[in-house]
Amino acid sequence: MLPDGVHLFDRLTGEQLITYSGYLHGLDKATVAERTADLLRAMDLTEAAGRTVADYSAGMTKKIALAAALIHAPSVLILDEPFEAVDPVSAANIQDILKGFVGSGGTVVLSSHVMDLVQRLCDHVAIMNEGHILAAGTVSEVRGNTSLEERFVQLVGGRTSSEGLSWLGTSSH
User: Does the entry feature the keyword Nucleotide-binding, yes or no (predicted)?
Assistant: First the structure.
């Protein structure tokens, strides 16, 4: 599980954090060492492995947290806003890793407010509001003849117009 705004042991190095996670999951020393090296390489964090996580960028922090979540080879990953505050290169890297995880039989459950991303990455979606599922099914079933974002707004409600802001296009200078 990888919650949004995750608090990591950020005084550890990236390598130490992944290693610690492996030991917490009961993996032996050789397996931890091999998988840690593999994950650092896959996440493009080999050069940063010896730096403390506190010194990582937002994208690097997301990737090291994902690596720590993956080290024990889970069958299901639950991710909360995994692409928030992540640069495009890191986002592409994370997407590739998640696609590989799913391709090898894993399941990813993710929450996101970025409907375009959800539409591109997910096979099945559920639109939730205040703890209630409003729609669920394949992306095509849920979105119907609209975009997923339009369908989300239809189901959840809320203001989508800029009514009353006609003055925005005029310059006062």
Answer: yes
Q: What is the pLDDT of residue 173?
A: 65
Percent of the chain with pLDDT over 90: 72
* Residues written for the chain: 173
Give mean pLDDT, residues 48-55. 96
Q: Model's pTM, two decimal places?
A: 0.80
What does the alpha-carbon distance between residue 118 and residue 127 come to, in Å, rounded to a whole number?
A: 11
Q: Where are the domains of the chain?
A: 1-75
Q: Say which amino acid occupies 32.
A: V
Please classify residue 133 by burial: count the beta carbons closer than 10 Å to its beta carbon, then call 0-12 exposed, 13-18 middle and 19+ buried.
exposed
Q: Residue range 133-160: average pLDDT?
A: 91
| Residues forming a β-bridge with 126 | 136
Residue ranges of E strands in the chain: 76-80, 107-111, 124-129, 132-138
d(CA 95, CA 84): 13
Question: Tokens 């998640």 belong to which residue?
Answer: 98
SS3 68: helix
Helix 14-24 × helix 58-70 angle, to 10°: 30
CA distance 3 to 131: 17
